[in-house]
Structure formats: C-alpha cells, structure tokens
C-alpha cells in the first residue's frame, strides 16, 4: 500500500482527482480536518473530567441544573470544582459539536458524513440532558450508567467523523487498497466490540458501588477461583469492614468479577490480534504503529486496574483508568477504520 501511495503522490502531487463526491486534500477545507481532531481530543478530556466527578464523589456537589447554585459561575471550591468544571467542559464540547456540524453541512459532500455529524450533535444534546436528569434525580444508577455509555458512544462518533475528514481516507479513495485479511477484520471488530462492552460493565460497576466489591488482587475474596457462595461473601465483607467500607451483596461481587474477566478476555484477544496484524499488515505502518500504542495502553490499563484496587480506589488513578479505557476504545475503532474497506458493500464482502 505504501508503494501505491507514493506512486499516486508522484502522479497527482497535491491535486488528487475528485472521486465519489469527495474533495481532494488540496481543496478540502483545512478547518474541517483540524476541527474534527479538536472535537475528538476534547471529548476524551471530557470523559476524563466526568470520571473525576464520579471518582471524587462530586456528582451532587451542585444539586441544581442547568444552573449551578443559581449561577453560571459559582465559587469553584471542593466538589463544585469537579462538577461545575465538568459542566463547563461539556458545554464547550457541545458548542464545538454544533460548529462542526454546521461546517460539515456547508462544506461536506458526502451525505453519510452529514448524517453522522447530525447524529453526533443529537447525541451530545441528549448527553447533556441525561447529565441534568442524573443530578435532579439524585444519581439513579440506570441514568448514570446510560450517561457514561453515551459518552463512549459519542466519542466513537467523533473518531469516525475525524477519519472521514482525514487526508489518509481521501488518499485511500484514490488508491483503493485491497481488503485486509478476513480473519483479522473479524477479530478487529470483535476486539472493538469487546472493549465497548467492557466499558459498559465498567460504568455499571462504578455506579453500583461495585468497584471494591472484590477488595483484593490478584486473588478474589482470598481465592484464586471465586466460589460465589456465602463463605466468599463473608470473607469479602470482613475485609471491607477492616477497610472501613460498607458491606456488599453478591450481585456487586458478580459485576466486579465480570469486569475482571473482561480484562482477561481482552488481553487474550489482543495477543491473537497482534499475531494476525503483524502477519498480514507488517508493512502497513499506519496500522502497526497504532497497535504498538494499543499494546502499551492495554498493559497500562490492566496495571491501573490493579492499582485502583490496591489503593482502595485512589480517585486520580481511578479516573485515569476510565480515560485510558476510552482511549483504548478510540484506538481500536481507528485501527478498524484503517483496515476495513471504505464502503459498506465492500466491507460485507470482506467479512463474508
């Protein structure tokens, strides 16, 4: 693929021909590309800020909405700093999304990109409403989990939008590279889906107070293999009592265990994917370079997960764990976008 890219660059220079309604890199508005990337990184920062709110227990530090203590700028002290700061960052991301959607409506030629931009705008508005409902209803688990899951979904939308504006995608339309290995594509799709499910379980775990439902690591309730019986629950609650924590029920223990099991499955699938990627895409640096970063983040994420338990949920380590999880999801989606064909019909053929 790299050789073909070079040939295209030598032939067309900065004037790649107009194909499939797209605009060549030389004439496609630079502001769209830069704005899309800004929106991506702003969303990741917003997820980090939201994680701080939950990790520091500041979800009800500001009990009213949409104002904060009846003001747009309350004193930024204590938990108000995290909760109101999160609101301000969320408002900024919402405003950026609105601007980007308008720019896409004006300059973008592809209808699917326009629809995706409008979907992202609808998602960020819904996210703001869910955040408000979460506060007004005193942090109900279901709404809080939906708020967290929608944040990850919105992040995925921003990544797809950013890739739709990239020079790389425009060049791929010209080069039209062959599809990657069928097995690799299937495992990439499975990996991204598993990461997404793991983040859902993580959100459930955080908002049901199950983060320390198994307070020891690497053992679980003093066992290498959990028995999920009354004896295990008694041992767990005795340990939690010594840590000055409230007792938990078996449902919380199961949620926590599922999250740990998900981490093991992700690690195993990641090893398989590494073999497939470096077997079929060893020369595709735009894919392999991301995989090196993905490998590093997965290992870091597992280490952070262990540290969260061993430090009894240090708020900053816990928040970093949330943000790195989102970054892993984003990287897996980007790798998938770089590997799959550009059209839905070609993708179906490649996966058939």
How is this structure best described in words?
The protein has 352 residues and is mainly α. The chain folds into two domains: 22-176; 179-352, no CATH class. It has helices spanning 2-12, 30-55, 79-107, 111-136, 141-164, 167-175, 182-207, 230-242, 250-280, 285-310, 315-339, 344-351. The longest helix has 31 residues, at 250-280. It is flat.
Write the layout of secondary structure elements.
Elements lengths: L1 H11 L17 H26 L23 H29 L3 H26 L4 H24 L2 H9 L6 H26 L22 H13 L7 H31 L4 H26 L4 H25 L4 H8 L1
Strand content: under 5%
Q: Give the C-alpha Rg.
A: 22 Å
Count of structural domains: 2
Order of helices and strands: HHHHHHHHHHHH
How helix-rich are the residues, as a percent range? over 70%
Total beta strand runs: 0
Distance between the termini: 23 Å
Class of secondary structure makeup: mainly alpha
- Which geometry do the CA atoms define? flat
Task: List the main descriptive attributes of the protein structure presented here.
mainly alpha, disordered N terminus, single chain
């Amino acid at each position: 693929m790299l050789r073909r890219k070079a040939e295209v660059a030598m032939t067309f220079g900065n004037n790649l021909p107009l194909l499939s309604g797209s605009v060549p890199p030389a004439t496609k508005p630079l502001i769209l590309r830069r704005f899309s990337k800004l929106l991506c990184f702003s969303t990741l920062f917003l997820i980090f800020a939201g994680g701080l709110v939950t990790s520091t227990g500041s979800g009800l530090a500001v009990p009213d909405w949409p104002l904060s203590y009846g003001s747009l700028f309350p004193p930024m002290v204590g938990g108000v700093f995290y909760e109101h700061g999160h609101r301000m960052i969320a408002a900024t991301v919402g405003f950026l999304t609105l601007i980007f959607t308008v720019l896409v409506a004006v300059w973008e030629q592809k209808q699917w990109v326009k629809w995706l931009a409008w979907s992202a705008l609808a998602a960020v508005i819904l996210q703001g409403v869910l955040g408000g409902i979460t506060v007004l209803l005193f942090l109900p688990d279901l709404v809080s989990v939906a708020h967290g899951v929608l944040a990850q979904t919105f992040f995925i939308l921003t990544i797809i939008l950013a890739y739709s504006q990239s020079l790389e995608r425009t060049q791929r339309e010209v080069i039209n590279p062959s599809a990657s290995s069928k097995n690799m594509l299937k495992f990439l799709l499975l990996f991204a889906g598993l990461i997404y499910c793991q983040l859902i379980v993580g959100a459930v775990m955080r908002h049901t107070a199950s983060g320390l439902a198994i307070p020891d690591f690497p053992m679980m309730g003093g066992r290498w293999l959990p028995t999920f019986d009354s004896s295990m629950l008694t041992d767990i609650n005795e340990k939690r009592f010594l840590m000055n924590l409230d007792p938990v029920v078996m449902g919380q223990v199961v949620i926590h265990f599922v999250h740990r099991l998900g981490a093991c499955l992700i690690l195993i699938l990641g090893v398989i994917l590494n073999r497939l990627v470096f077997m079929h895409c060893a020369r595709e640096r735009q894919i392999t370079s991301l995989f090196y970063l993905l490998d590093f983040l997965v290992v870091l994420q597992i280490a952070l997960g262990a540290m969260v338990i061993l430090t009894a949920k240090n708020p900053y380590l816990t928040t970093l764990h949330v943000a790195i999880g989102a970054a892993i999801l984003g990287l897996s989606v980007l790798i998938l976008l770089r590997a799959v064909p550009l059209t839905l019909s070609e993708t179906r053929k490649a996966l058939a």
